[in-house]
Amino acid sequence: MAISEEGLDELENYLIEADITQVMEATWMGGGGHPSKFMAVLAGGGGALGKAENASAEAPTMIQRERAAWLLARTLEWTDLVAATVLRHVEAPSGPCMCSLQMIWPAYSPGVAEDTFPEEDRWRAGIFVPADPSHGQQRLKLVDHGHAFELARPFGSPFFSAFSGQEIPSPYDEALENLAPGVPSMEELLPQDEYGGFVDRMNHLRDGVLNINEP
Length: 215
Prior knowledge:
Layout: H1 5-17, E1 20-25, E2 37-42, E3 47-52, H2 59-76, E4 85-92, E5 95-103, H3 119-128, E6 132-136, E7 139-143, H4 158-163, H5 172-176, H6 184-187, H7 192-205
Antiparallel strand pairs: 1-2, 2-3, 3-5, 4-5, 6-7
């Protein structure tokens, strides 16, 4: 069942405002681009994956990309693909600083074959790129948003490649209309060139064909 906008606002507020009762290094969660992950246990028992801006020189930009990816999912109304993500100050293992906090997907299992997922999920992931595929509860989930929008990385995903050049079917083309003329909340988070590249790609997609100009 889809969550209402009010429900999503409440979820974000919980991530931002709930007391953090415990913080621990997430050494069991390998992979990904962020060098230092931690788990935050929130009042009420909720678990969130945290990433600190003081972990590396690139980390401040990475955590803002993660927030931007969630805002993009909200704008498209595809919040089942991306974990709810906020920015808040946390007493992280690396020291107190601004961090990204995102809800932890249950049954996280990377490396599942792309054709395992429903066509609806594969189409939406092909439009949403760049992000890395992950699997949870038989539905597609997207992770590693710290590299989303990054112009220096090679563009593409297996989901984009599978449908590249095809006409974007309804209702996915209708969802893209939510992005016109842009997403101001994302513009506040991303470097100017990355946001400009995002807008350019979305404008190409809004022509109705899954095809873009590579950065």
